[in-house]
Amino acid sequence: MAHTQASSASPTLAFLTLVLSLLSLARTVRSALPPLGDINTLFVLGDSYSATGFNPSKGYDQWAQSPDTFGSGRSWSMFIANSTRVPSALYDRTFSLAEGGTPLSPDRSWPNFPKDGVKAEVDRFAEYFVNASTEGKGARPVWTGDRTLFVIWFGVNDFEIAGKMGNLALPVTDGTFDRLREQVTRLYDLGARNFLFPTLSQFHRTPTIRAQSTPDFDAPSEYEAVYLRWNAKLKETVADFPLTLPDANVQVWDAWSWFGQMLDNAEAFGFKNSSTWCSAYSHLKWNYADVPDQDKPECGLSEYFWTDAAHPTYAVHEYLADSLIETLSNPQDTLVIEFNPMRLLNPEKRLSRRMSALSLRDGTSPSHHQHLPRHSRRMRRVPKRWDVSWTAVDPDTVGEA
Ligand SMILES: *[C@@H]1O[C@H](CO)[C@@H](O)[C@H](O)[C@H]1NC(C)=O
Ligand SMILES: *[C@@H]1O[C@H](CO)[C@@H](O)[C@H](O)[C@H]1NC(C)=O
Ligand SMILES: *[C@@H]1O[C@H](CO)[C@@H](O)[C@H](O)[C@H]1NC(C)=O
């Protein structure tokens, strides 16, 4: 009897082994994203780190709309769109559907913030970018799956809200990654083929998380631990996509290491202050302006890593854009792709450009800023349709991502 069981078990085992080795084979045949030079349309789904204020219900020209970013300046996708090192089509065909405060999971949301998580952004995508036609009133940008990249970057708000709900680990223990799978599958069914998933930034190093520490709660290390679990689950989830989505190219961008290297070497990148933010800016919302950090006598904004308690300044966004351009222009055939931002400091010319901008500021005493002719230099460089102004934002939103 025991013998019979053993012999009937072994074909089952052999079959299982075969299935498992086929599965692992499938994992290794995943192909890299096409080089950025072959991409002519970019869609971004995410939260405040990726928000631009673009609203497709107002038309498809993001530059004609008022920006609404969280870095007191251009957001990373705006820097990419306007870069000379990417296909020029991206200038008009970079669409961020990201909204501040959006978590991945529809089960969590801030009061008065977007609901339905990533699903809400995919809904918008389906509403405004599917069934494209070049003709007539309903003309939409025509995109093809092979030349379009989707960047999907979430997570910070899931943890912030879970923390407020008293269960920080919820995003890595509930069905959050099933929700991601559903929405990515939906995008795939609508024609999407190329997907990039950045990991979490090192958000535990933001002033807002550091400020949550109490004698009983070491906030940065508690958050770091759950963030690392999220990143591991993200990699697992993404590694499995090719099993169910044939022809999909999926990669994970190691934003975690990128932010770590930026923060560890903040001074080398020109940030004199990476521990806190300049409050003169934190309650203000930037509008199109070329040199946004010369308005305030208290501080030069681009010398700060943080623009408020939770968000990096536009100067960080510019480095982020440059790094993504470098990474995506030179495909790496691994699930997790990365770029060490220290490489941006070579060639020298970039560093010296930034350093000379900073030393210019250093030569001016803070009070002297007040006597500078207001906007004189930059007005000439700002196209007319952009209004140059700062307006107050709801202080409650500062601190949310
Ligand atoms: C694009 O880059 C150019 C050159 O750096 C700059 O003058 C212009 O203001 C930028 N435009 C946008 C829309 O960011
Ligand atoms: C696109 O058009 C097809 C055919 O008319 C229709 O079945 C489908 O629902 C449309 N999809 C969207 C997202 O509008
Ligand atoms: C950073 O900026 C804050 C606010 O402006 C200031 O109080 C602090 O001393 C600065 N830290 C450093 C290291 O410059």
From TrEMBL:
Protein origin, superkingdom: Eukaryota
Signal peptide (UniProt feature, chain positions): 1-31
Compositionally biased spans, kind Basic residues: 368-379
GO function terms (MF aspect): hydrolase activity, acting on ester bonds
Pfam families named among the record's database cross-references: Lipase_GDSL
InterPro entries, A to Z: GDSL, GDSL_Est/Lipase, SGNH_hydro_sf
Lineage: Eukaryota, Fungi, Dikarya, Basidiomycota, Pucciniomycotina
Species per Swiss-Prot/TrEMBL record: Rhodotorula toruloides (strain NP11) (Yeast)
CDD domains listed in its UniProt record: fatty_acyltransferase_like (cd01846)
Name the record gives this protein: GDSL family lipase, carbohydrate esterase family 16 protein
Keyword vocabulary terms for this entry: Hydrolase, Signal
Positions of region (Disordered): 359-379
